[in-house]
Design goal:
The chain is of the alpha/beta class. It folds into 2 domains: 264 residues, Aldehyde Dehydrogenase, Chain A, domain 1, CATH 3.40.605.10; 190 residues, Aldehyde Dehydrogenase, Chain A, domain 2 (3-Layer(aba) Sandwich), CATH 3.40.309.10. The chain contains 15 helices and 20 strands. A 7-stranded mixed beta sheet has the order 14-15-16-13-12-17-18, sandwiched between helices. β12, α9 and β13 form a beta-alpha-beta unit. The radius of gyration is 23 Å and the shape is globular. Bound molecules: NADP nicotinamide-adenine-dinucleotide phosphate and magnesium ion (MG). The site of NADP nicotinamide-adenine-dinucleotide phosphate has 26 residues, from α7 and α8.
């Protein structure tokens, strides 16, 4: 059992002031793998006091000192690789190969890339008749979701440390143990006491208090739009800055000169990766009507190459969804798609044969979807794809942008001018052309209801800073 009912406050693991606990469940086995504390407001207040106390000294550390801290964290993190991979597999249900190659690695990359971004980051600059200084925003509250237990947490922590901002983190209560290993990593790396604090508990108690606490100056949140809205409302009372990363319904536009098999592979990889629990996943494949039959055949042909099942097996690429609630949500959307009259191409309701234990979902692809259907408008967060056909490029772009979201967009095809035209026209924060590689220096974040602000690299550091103009002096 991984039980640890303590919080990490002011450099030490401390008992909670309450006695309530939360069970953490392995979604592949439905078994309890450990307990954490369901923290109290008093626990959170203690962590804020610690963060506030270290703020004056931590915010004045030099760039070099912060780079050293980030490097020390990366090096301690590497030492915990096997354990992190195991924990992510257990608490998220992520297949072990993905836990290593995606989750473990993303967590590591944020520390090393932010260290690199920090090296060339300009905190003070002379602009003729004034000086611009970028200063630590203050104490930051971090609230993270369960879908990327290391990535979501480490992008925020790395940026905060780079900016000299002490933090209080509340990780998702479904996947807290990877974050707790990170706390041990940070402790080992010798980060000043109070600069990093972790308080476990529910969103309604700890998360809510983070967004209302008068001594927290900035809240960086990743999760659902519903909770994002609450955080904005709560933060308004003390005019706290908020950064929100809130998911999407991203389009994949397939051009008429694209290789149909490659395009199908791209579409399938998006819904199978992390069992579709990816905020930036392409969940609407927008394809030329002339390609429809071939694309559907290619989808049916490609799907079996993504093996799903027991996350402990190294050849498995897709595991269960994270929880019973998430399983039920995904089922309700599959039912909705059927009721709305979309054509079920593969998958459907219920658990896959032989996978009755665990929150396994049948990878499901709907075709003949029209963009006004609920399955094309709402974020499902499971392995469900909608195929939508278009007649001409302008129609494809209208469909792509007809959404309240704007986190990411994807385009595949051959003609360079058309690729570039489409990349410029999709209203979203990150566009990927022909499966371009992930870049940890590129900003990540959304237009419209996908959020406010950017994470990763130098743009991530900016979020944890205030801008000051000094007039009448030059440096
Ligand atoms: P969520 O409810 O928004 O939770 C995200 C985080 O916020 C968790 O740490 C959660 O705590 C906390 N929280 C919950 N209520 C809160 C409140 N009133 N005030 C402050 N913090 C609060 O997201 P979820 O339950 O994990 O997933 C639900 C849906 O959100 C998904 O189906 C998906 O559509 C979306 N989602 C998006 C992303 C993304 O990357 N953009 C990631 C995950 C989920 P506890 O859960 O521990 O109580
Ligand atoms: Mg929730």
């Amino acid at each position: 059992m991984r039980t640890n009912v303590k919080h990490f406050i002011n450099g030490d693991w401390v008992e909670s002031t309450g006695t309530d606990t939360i069970d953490v469940i392995n979604p592949a086995t439905e078994e309890v793998i450990g307990k954490i504390s369901s923290g109290t407001e008093e626990d959170l207040n203690k962590a804020v006091v610690a963060a506030k106390a270290v703020l004056p000294s931590f915010s004045e550390t030099t760039k070099e000192e912060r780079i050293d801290m980030l490097k020390a964290i990366a090096s301690e993190y590497e030492k915990r690789k096997d354990e992190l991979v195991e924990v992510i597999t257990e608490e998220l249900g992520s297949p072990v190969t993905m836990s290593e190659k995606v989750h473990y690695q993303m967590g590591y990359n944020h520390f090393t890339h932010v260290a690199k971004a920090l090296k060339s980051f300009v905190f003070e600059e002379n602009r003729g008749n004034h000086i611009i200084r970028k200063e630590t925003i203050g104490v930051s509250g971090l609230i993270t979701p369960w879908n990327f237990p290391t990535n979501q947490v480490s992008t925020k922590i790395a940026s905060a440390i780079a900016a000299g901002s002490p933090v209080v983190l509340k990780p998702a209560s479904r996947t807290p143990f990877a974050a707790m290993i990170l706390a041990e990593v940070i402790q080992k790396a010798g980060i000043p006491k109070g600069a990093f604090n972790l308080v476990n508990g529910t969103g309604s108690i700890i998360g809510n208090r983070i967004s209302t606490h008068p001594d927290i100056d900035f809240v960086s949140f990743t999760g659902s739009g519903k909770v994002g809205e609450k955080i904005m409302k709560n933060s308004a009372k003390t005019i706290k800055k908020v950064a929100l990363e809130l998911g999407g319904k991203s389009p994949l536009i397939v051009l008429d000169d694209a290789d149909v098999n490659e395009a199908a592979k791209t579409a399938i990889s998006h819904i199978m990766m992390n069992t579709g629990q990816v905020c930036s996943a392409a969940t609407r494949a927008i394809i030329p009507v002339t390609m429809k039959n071939d694309f559907e055949e290619a989808i049916k042909h490609t799907l079996p190459s993504f093996k799903y099942g027991d996350p402990k097996k190294t050849d498995v690429k897709t595991g269960p969804v994270v929880s019973k609630e998430q399983w039920e949500t995904v089922q309700s959307y599959i039912k909705k798609g059927i009721d709305e009259g979309a054509t079920l191409l593969v998958g459907g309701l219920g658990k896959p044969k032989g996978m009755e234990t665990g929150y396994f979902v049948k990878p499901t692809v709907f075709t003949d979807v029209s963009n006004d259907m609920v399955i094309a408008q709402e974020e499902i967060f499971g392995p469900v794809l909608s195929i939508i056909a278009y007649n001409d490029l302008e129609e494809a772009l209208n469909i792509a942008n007809d959404t309240v979201y704007g986190l990411a967009g994807y385009v595949v095809g051959k003609n360079k001018d058309t690729l570039s035209y489409v990349a410029n026209k999709i209203k979203a924060g990150q566009i990927t052309v022909n499966n371009g590689k992930i870049d940890f220096m590129a900003p990540f974040g959304g237009y419209k209801q996908s959020g406010i602000g950017r994470e990763w690299g130098d743009f991530g550091i900016e979020e944890f800073l205030e801008i000051k103009a000094i007039l009448g002096m030059s440096s």
